[in-house]
Amino acid sequence: MNIVLLSGGSGKRLWPLSNDIRSKQFIKIFKCPDGSYESMVQRVYRQIKQVDKGATVTIATSKTQVSAIHNQLGEEVGISVEPCRRDTFPAIALATAYLADVQGVNPEEPVVVCPVDPYVEDDYFEALKALSEQAAKSEANLVLMGIEPTYPSEKYGYIIPKNSSAVSDVATFKEKPDAETAKAYIAQGALWNGGVFAYKLRYVLDKAHELIDFTDYKDLFDKYAELNKISFDYAVVEKEPKIQVMRFAGQWKDLGTWNTLTEAMGEPSVGKAMMNDTCTNVHVVNELNVPVLAMGLHDVVISASPEGILVSDKEQSSYIKPYVDKIDQQIMFAEKSWGSFRVLDVEDESLTIKVTLNPGHSMNYHSHMNRDEVWVVISGTGRTVVDGAERPVHVGDVVQMQAGCRHTVLADSELQLIEVQLGKEISVHDKQKFPLEQETTR
């Protein structure tokens, strides 16, 4: 099975845990049997592999999310990187060209596209296999998953099938309605459109060539910034006469708000949190190393992270986005391919960061022109390379780097550093990368 997971957006409705780099799908909030926590993308990827060990998974995403994906899923997962955001049709076209030209997928093979962040059980992924098998039959050019609605939602578009069979031709599509109109659609047998569909690779590849002038994946990638922003629904689905819909009646939740996310949490709190007995329907997610105490609260979500603190009525939390849009501050936490960093202190001419490197990983070999840096090792062992000279480092070691010198650190075990940046112009853009090979001396 070939699956393309669409991983876009910044997830501002789940502030302060999400930001422009760390989208909602990377928040580790679901408890595993061993007591650790996993994110939405880790959960979905694990579930796919449980149902189909041989599944080829490709994640279509922006370049800002690549490091987090590698951090959470490893280096083996396929990634179709969007140079910039151009909505779902360009993203799916690019991912389809990536499968054809980079992964070598046969044009006659079916491909399933779905969001990366639904909260579902294994029957959903069995349904994806059935969707793929239905697309392989070539009875239709597109096969959609129609989700049996549980209430008249205003958040989803609706698919109206021609009959009530498990697989049906599609009569029409309806845009997101108001609640009363949604009730009327459901009375007609309408299904939610959850953005899940399957096709033979050749079909979308041909559509992409029909609507975009390009030769192959690399050419499309290079032209990506010039493409019109348009959704797959508008560009393809609404114009395609040969469409089927397959019903899905299992659990399916879009965890796009704090209200829906807390419904899926297996416990009332994550992190350091206490609630007294008078609290009801209260959830706390705390990423800070300080306790949170809640007393006498009802139907409330509390979330604390380096980005900020949210205390909200659960229903009102759905209206968070315009307020978060007004917040302008630097990213305080991010996952990288080599580990993660958390900003501890910000001053006019200094920045203090806690850096965690995963075992066997290293930063890029790089320099900064406008700042000095100091590393203090607080946990683990590793090696630093400063202007080509390699040295081992252990707990308590201090490494000083002047502006302009080239440096990196390699982790032999999990390695934690306190990094202090000093300078009048501290900027994420002040960084030049260099190849490390053949430069080190012992």
Short description:
The chain has 442 residues and is an alpha+beta fold. It contains 10 helices and 30 strands. The protein has 3 domains: 2-254, Spore Coat Polysaccharide Biosynthesis Protein SpsA, Chain A; 266-319, no CATH class; 338-434, Jelly Rolls, CATH 2.60.120.10.
How many angstroms separate the termini? Answer: 48 Å
Q: Give the beta-strand count.
A: 30
Q: Report the C-alpha radius of gyration, rounded.
A: 24 Å
CATH topology of the largest domain: Spore Coat Polysaccharide Biosynthesis Protein SpsA, Chain A
CATH class of the largest domain: Alpha Beta
Global morphology: globular
Which architecture of the largest domain does the CATH hierarchy give at level 2?
Alpha-Beta Complex
Strand order of the largest sheet: 20-21-22-29-24-27
Q: Which percent range fits the helix content?
A: 10-25%
CATH superfamily of the largest domain: Spore Coat Polysaccharide Biosynthesis Protein SpsA, Chain A
Whole-number total of structural domains = 3
**Alpha-beta content class:** alpha+beta
Low-confidence runs of at least 5 consecutive residues: none
Mean pLDDT: 91
Please explain how this structure is put together.
- The chain is an alpha+beta fold and 442 residues long.
- It folds into 3 domains: 2-254, Spore Coat Polysaccharide Biosynthesis Protein SpsA, Chain A (Alpha-Beta Complex); 266-319, no CATH class; 338-434, Jelly Rolls (Sandwich).
- It is 21% helix and 36% strand.
- The protein has 10 helices and 30 strands.
- The chain has helices at 40-51, 66-73, 88-101, 122-136, 179-187, 201-211, 217-223, 232-235, 258-264, 321-324, and strands at residues 2-7, 30-31, 37-38, 56-62, 78-82, 110-115, 118-120, 142-147, 157-161, 167-174, 191-200, 243-248, 252-254, 269-270, 273-275, 280-286, 292-294, 298-305, 308-313, 333-336, 339-347, 350-357, 365-367, 372-379, 382-386, 389-393, 398-401, 407-411, 415-422, 432-434.
- The strands form 8 sheets. It has a 6-stranded antiparallel β-sheet. A 5-stranded mixed β-barrel has the order 8-11-9-10-12.
- Helix 3 (88-101) packs across helix 6 (201-211).
- The two termini are 48 Å apart.
